[in-house]
Specification:
With about 325 residues, the protein is an alpha/beta fold. The protein folds into 2 domains: about 220 residues, P-loop containing nucleotide triphosphate hydrolases (Rossmann fold, 3-Layer(aba) Sandwich), CATH 3.40.50.300; about 80 residues, Alpha-Beta Plaits (2-Layer Sandwich), CATH 3.30.70. Helix content is about 35%, strand content about 25%. It is built from 11 helices and 14 strands. Strands 6-7-8-3-9-10 form a 6-stranded mixed sheet, with helices on both faces. A 4-stranded antiparallel sheet has the order 2-1-4-5. Strand 4 and strand 5 form a beta hairpin. Helix 3 packs across helix 4 and helix 4 crosses helix 5. It starts with 7 loop residues before the first strand and ends in a 10-residue tail after the last helix.
């Protein structure tokens, strides 16, 4: 594969259903080896867009390619692994038998198929439970099985539609670690999710969908406009020291009483806050606090989270959903 060919590229790609729902005019360029997060509330049109990319539904307009091949073409499909949001496997089959069925669809046979099946089950954490029937699997285990099936053909591009939504916190962490490992191997990841921590931990860039439209896109850092705030819990504080701290440090320090008190006093602990660019500024404030005879109980960093950004981004907007 030529490195400068984008893994995923779309130009005004749309899929509109009869009820007017779907996705509209989505233009994206995702490089090889990139992890891209597609965020949005339930019903925003994310799954419709993914289904259009993998060729399960025909686009209403626009165009797209996967590693240079038109979406929906046989050549494009050869490059992809896909974990759908709604997955169903025959409950009377074992996990290994489900994998064997998928191996057959990929044209894998004999020792090569057995090797990949065993490695895939181990990689997603199913291991020896591969011989158990699907009906004995929890929803989280079935989701792991779906991920193993998506990886079976060693695809260059992975489309993962809510890959850890049915898992407990431990399972979600394990899946995030696996996705980071796949990213290191050079896989292109398209992560369709409403779980903020997954996108924040794994993805390089992201986009926000709402009511079928892509309303924002950029790197995770750009989208979050990351603000790093430091907090200092101090004793022996007096309001008169606040102006001194601001002048001595040149930083916008604010104060908030931790106790329910009408005014700040020497007795009650106080939180000081400041938006800082680097740790050296935090060190300066630590030094000045101690220098003035205050007691420094605690200092900590607080970074704006993706969930806060997401709620702010959709605040006040009508969320009609993809289907009603």
């Amino acid at each position: 594969m030529t490195p400068d060919i984008p893994a995923i590229q779309t130009q005004a790609l749309s899929k509109i259903y009869e009820n007017g729902r779907g996705c509209r005019n989505i233009t994206l360029r995702i490089g090889q080896g990139e992890a891209f997060g597609f965020l949005g509330p339930n019903g925003a049109g994310k799954s419709t867009f993914v289904k259009t990319l993998v060729g399960l539904v025909r686009a209403s307009g626009g165009e797209g390619t996967l590693l240079g091949s038109p979406i929906g073409s046989l050549e494009a499909r050869r490059h992809i692994g896909y974990l759908p949001e709604l997955y169903r496997y025959p409950e009377w089959l074992s996990g290994e038998e489900v994998m064997k069925m998928h191996a057959g669809l990929l044209g894998l046979r004999g020792e090569e198929a057995r090797k990949r099946i065993r490695a895939g089950l181990d990689e997603v954490g199913i291991g020896k439970r591969g011989s158990d029937r699907v009906k004995q699997y929890s929803k989280g285990m079935q989701q792991r099985l779906g991920l193993a099936c998506a990886l079976l053909g060693d695809p260059a591009i992975l489309f993962l539609d809510e890959p850890s939504s049915a898992m407990d916190p431990v399972g979600r962490r394990e899946v995030r670690e696996l996705l980071l490992e796949l990213k290191k191997r050079g896989k292109t990841l398209f992560l369709n999710s409403h779980l903020m921590e997954d996108v924040e931990a794994v993805c390089d860039r992201m986009a926000l969908m709402l009511n079928g439209d892509m309303i924002r896109s950029g790197t995770v850092g750009e989208m979050l406009k990351v603000k790093v705030r430091w907090r200092f819990k101090v004793g022996g504080f007096s309001p008169v020291l606040l102006d001194w701290l601001r002048e001595a440090s040149g930083l916008p320090v604010s104060a908030e009483q931790t106790e329910h008190a009408e005014e700040m006093s020497w007795e009650a602990p106080t939180w000081l806050e400041a938006e800082l660019e680097h740790e050296e500024q935090a060190g300066l404030l630590n030094m000045l606090i101690v220098e003035q005879g205050m007691t420094l109980y605690e200092s900590s960093i607080h970074q704006e989270k993706l969930e806060d950004w997401f709620l702010e981004a959709v605040s006040g907007r009508d969320q009609r959903g993809e289907q009603q």
